[in-house]
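PT: before anyone asks, these are the final sequences, not the draft ones from last week. 1342 residues across everything. Please model them as a single complex and drop the result in this thread when it's through.
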Amino acid sequence: MSLPLIETFSTTSAYLPLVARIADVRPLTQLEKLFTIELPGDLSLKHAPGQFVELSVFGVGEAPFSISSSPSRSNGTFELCVRQAGQVTDALHALGPGDAVGVRGPFGRGFPVRRFRGKDLLFLPGGLGLAPLRSLINQVLDERSNYGRVIILYGARHPSELLFQDELTLWSAREDVEVQVTVDRSDGNWQGHVGVITTLIPEVQLYAPNTVAFTVGPPVMYRFVLVELLGKGIREGNIWLSLERRMKCGIGKCGHCQINHLYTCLDGPCFPYAQIKRLEEAL
Amino acid sequence: MNLQVLPKGALVEWIELLSARYRVIGPKRKQEVVQQQPAGDTQQPPREQYIFGELQGAHELELSYPSTILPPKKVFLPQKEELFSFKDNGHQVDLQLDERRTVIFGIHTCDLHAVLLLDQAFSQGAADQHYMARRANTTLVSIECLEPCSENAFCKDMGTWIMPETFDLHLTDLGHEYALEIGSAKGSELLQNLTNIRTATETDYWRFNQVISAKWARFPYRLEADLSELPSLLAISYRSQVWEELGQQCLGCGTCTAVCPTCYCFDVVDEVNFDLTSGKRFRVWDSCQFGQFASVAGGHDFRNSRAARLRHRFYHKFKYQSDSFGLAGCVGCGRCAEACLVNIKPIDVINKLHRKRVAVSGKRQEVMG
Amino acid sequence: MTVSTKPKVAFFDFTGCEGCQLTVIDALQTHADLLSAVEIVQFREAMSERDEDYQIAFIEGSCSRTSDEARLKAIREQAQIVVALGACAHLGGVNALRNWQSSDDVRRYVYGQGGKLYDSHKALPIQAIIRVECFIPGCPIDRNEFVNALKALLQHRLPRLPDYPVCAECKLNENECLFMRGIPCLGSVTRAGCGAICPSFGACCEGCRGLVSDPNIGWLRAVAVEHGLREGGFEAASRLFLSHELMESEGDRHGKH
Amino acid sequence: MASIRTSPAPVEIHHLTRVEGHGNIIVDIRNGTILQCDLEIIEAPRFFEAMLRGRPYDQAPRLSSRICGICAVTHTTASIKALESALGVENSQQTDLLRQLNLCAEMLDSHLLHVYMLVAPDLLGAGSIIPLAVESPDIVHRALRMKQVAGQICAAIGGRHTHPITMTVGGFTHLPTEEELQVLLRRLDAISPDIESTVNLFADLVLPDFERETEYIALQKDHGYSLIDGFIASSDGGSWPIEQYRGVVNEYQISRSTAKHARHRRQSYMVGALARYKLNHEKLNPQAKAAAARLNLKPTCQNPFMITIAQVVEIVHFYEEAIRIIGQLLELGIQWEEIAQPARQSGEGVGACEAPRGTLYHHYVLRNGAIAEANCVIPTGQNLANIEADMRALAPQIWDRSRDEITLTLEMLVRAYDPCISCSTHMLEVRFV
Ligand SMILES: Cc1cc2nc3c(=O)[nH]c(=O)nc-3n(C[C@H](O)[C@H](O)[C@H](O)COP(=O)(O)OP(=O)(O)OC[C@H]3O[C@@H](n4cnc5c(N)ncnc54)[C@H](O)[C@@H]3O)c2cc1C
Ligand code: SF4
Ligand code: SF4
Ligand code: SF4
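LR: through. Structure below.
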């Protein structure tokens, strides 16, 4: 039996990362790379889709990343899709297979997958938002019969910024998944839809009472997507988001990730819209 | 109640006894700095300043201090604290929890309430072993305040001017002696080998009660709203103009959070050695009043004005913490009001919000009536 | 992270007192291993050898004459990373005090009729002439900050400056605020990082590290007046190091209207 | 760096290294005749006097400190002394002792930097300190060890070495504790063998043999080896109160240099360690006297290369002095005292100090608490004419040697003076009203 990683912290220090190994690095776009991380010994992450880890580059620092791989497909390894955005992520991008990184987690509340059995699932990742949703999508696809329709509407700013293109192709090829991809700005070769992600929503036929929507993206996107989804009649409790905040500890101590009274790292990062809609600082 | 009595003169012996077994910390005079020549015409006399520091002996202990610059939180959560050191790119890590046996003397009841709140924050959920280790090895000797320490203190309003239910050892100044209440086994351990202590007599109880009841009248209420009303007062004040006004004044210097006994936000930083493969990770105090506190990669700042940051601080203290811990996040010590250069004071802020509400509801009643 | 080869670093000085370079030399007392991590190829104050092949250029001093500009640009050409070392390079330093007076006046006062001979213009931060990747503020620089910045550069990242005021560090040191003693201090608008060394030694912060990105100067001035500072006293105090920044922000305001 | 054109063209040493500030040497010797022999100061002008004008007086020491990072304590002290004399401020004995101690530490720091890092590499045949650190790490570590203690003294008294924080008109804004002084004493004690080794190291080194008669000027006091105050004394005889400094220094301006030159009775004079030694040698502490004997330094010495040796003697002297002053402070006990307040807001005053490189003067006129006029006379400025005179005398003696050797010898000569060029780029036109 493999041991959940999080239990290793309880005896020493919640801030002490476990040393793991980068097993593989795959560039996805100019700014994003997919890292496969291998935990030592018998450990396993035992995460839920939507949860995150704190990843350390020793000597540079630590940063939170959503786990991008599905729990249904991991055995001792997990994947993170990391955008180069600052000190830690720059340092991470300079690392390669075999290099050591520190891992703490998994932290936070993921998506309560079980609750969605039998529902129609609508995924709306924007840009890097596909990283956490990919975990959930793949888990759902691995137990496909438990769910109703699976619809993926993916938006990126530019064709060159589309993540996981091979998987998008695989998903599109499936009979039981409806996939639509759009870009804000096209380039010469782009054959697909052009326009922001919200332009895809009106065309989708939904049975709102049985639909759960998942959207992850930048704050501006949320504002517009929410209007559309609510307009479609999807209930506030059935719209799930994952919020990004500055985070240092991952365990509700450092104070950085507070959204009014909520701690993103404990109460989130995945929230149903109903829970945060009245919070001024949420969106 | 099991009351003991200790002559003040016995402090010397007591601290000597304790120093052999513990690191003894207490309020003492901040080393004086020379008076620089003021640039203006208002020459202010230097004020005595106190800090919690390691005691060389009872002569340094100042039990009748008004307040300290920093609260005792710095003992459990130092300004800069090593979390661990690493070598060989992290393949070797070394973690040393601070388990020095420590006594802190002379904690005011407000600060003791604050420590209890920190206990909650650091033990809940995933416990913070660094804090817990220090806390577990520390015994607190609190002292009853017989007078308000400053005009900025509002401990009576916050209910922290009296001892909380949990304490180790509590002192009350009876003039030439201290009354000593024992609240825990850890507390009574401090009394080992102490010869000069005796059990209280009838007269001692009578004196003790005298002192405590005389205290009540000396402490004014300073908030116009009741403690129980604060969460609901704040609940309706989120969009108040008051925050904008305060935001204009605020210097964003984070002084208020540094001196606050219940603030504990921190940042984590790595320091590497020249070999670039070994180094240390530190935790350092941070403040929600700083500009970058809530900004994320990509530059989005979720609390991007001084007004919003200031409001967050007040909500955290007066609403969020009481909502989640059932303990007020502000203990009314008055340090932030004392230290704020632009005079942003919780008493004033709360009273202002309260008056606005009264004015509004008055108007509404007029309209309805 | 490891770096394959020792980066070559060079030190240059322009208009300044060389106190920052001296601080670098002093850093060797506590960080002798610095020499094993980098190869110093130019450091005129301390060595005669000179090699024009370098990756990191530390520049001390402000740019105060036309002939400096070409030299700065040549350094920029060669270096991958340019570091402004100290207040002079970062802000113009005390040299910028003279920018409030006309150059002719200044020259005449100091060199009399011969003053015309000297090539000199306003004292500017080097950033006014060339692109600068990294700043190590302070007059002089803080030894630890220099060491940490160098380590960051060795890790191929740019060190980040704190964006909160000196007061924050002043409180961590448990100082009594100088205002409480009637001494006006610029700590609340000045970028932290020095450990509030001046207030900790009983003297006011003079702003040598430059302004934080969102300084509340208006209210600080009001506070200073409230604490008895004479008319104009705040301006006088802030000009010692902030002349260039203040003139720039003033220029911005006039430019907008 | 030296770029030398083919003979019989001039020797030009551009970009003088291992000195503070920017200077060039230009020597044109043809067949033993000197056509040109100049030290060109190309440092950007600093204009400190102009910047001082109009500043509130308490900013003057802070601002003047920034004239030079190496002798910041001396500038600060001279500035404060000038202000105190203008404002009628009386200091406590403790303040005086602390200032002297801080000056001793700066003297140690500066001399150590100079003799070990800037001069020793020449004498030991290592290009500079970096190769020296590889070849003889123990020598470099010894220097760093001693420098560190000097720095710690400065930090305890002034908050930091470069640009002291605590020094102010009327006293100090912060005082070292007695415990801190005890620690410093222990640290000084621990480097005693290093001080001895320093003397031994320089006793074994051979300096160029060159002599030229000149005038030597330094501060003198009735008791002790003067650092602050006293009067101005000349080796040619005569002494003057420091207020009459202008009659002694007679600064003048020359076109090729942003620094002012000075002359007294002769064409030039020398200030600095050798001048101090010649004028005050009887007042050296005992170990320093012994060191002078061991190093063969004589009061009759006329060799400017021996400035380095005089600095080594002073290292010993100021080391002893630091121990003595700390002892005295501990004996008196550190007293918390208020800063002395000015008696008036207008006035005129001169402050003088011995900087590592020689006598430094600050002179201010104050009106209503602000500086109305300012003049600073910097040691290196006073030495420039003397350096050139030395070069002119030395060059013909060595003109037949290899270009490299000429270059090195001339550079070594200039370096011996430990010139502080950024200090000296200032002016002169004094317009006291
Ligand atoms: C729950 C969660 C999940 C996440 N999942 C992912 C994921 O799957 N993939 C991914 O790529 N990212 C993810 N992120 C975002 C990721 O954590 C950040 O990109 C990362 O923390 C950046 O760290 P860094 O050290 O590289 O950047 P930093 O160097 O810390 O820079 C980040 C930000 O710091 C601030 N900053 C910039 N300059 C300064 C300055 N001078 N002073 C102070 N602050 C400054 C800015 O806001 C800047 O954008 C997630 C975040 C959260 C909270
Ligand atoms: S910043 Fe200050 S210490 Fe550095 S060179 Fe300029 S004046 Fe000197
Ligand atoms: S002394 Fe200066 S830096 Fe310190 S708190 Fe006061 S204003 Fe801020
Ligand atoms: S306290 Fe102020 S003047 Fe002093 S070093 Fe820091 S920023 Fe500079």
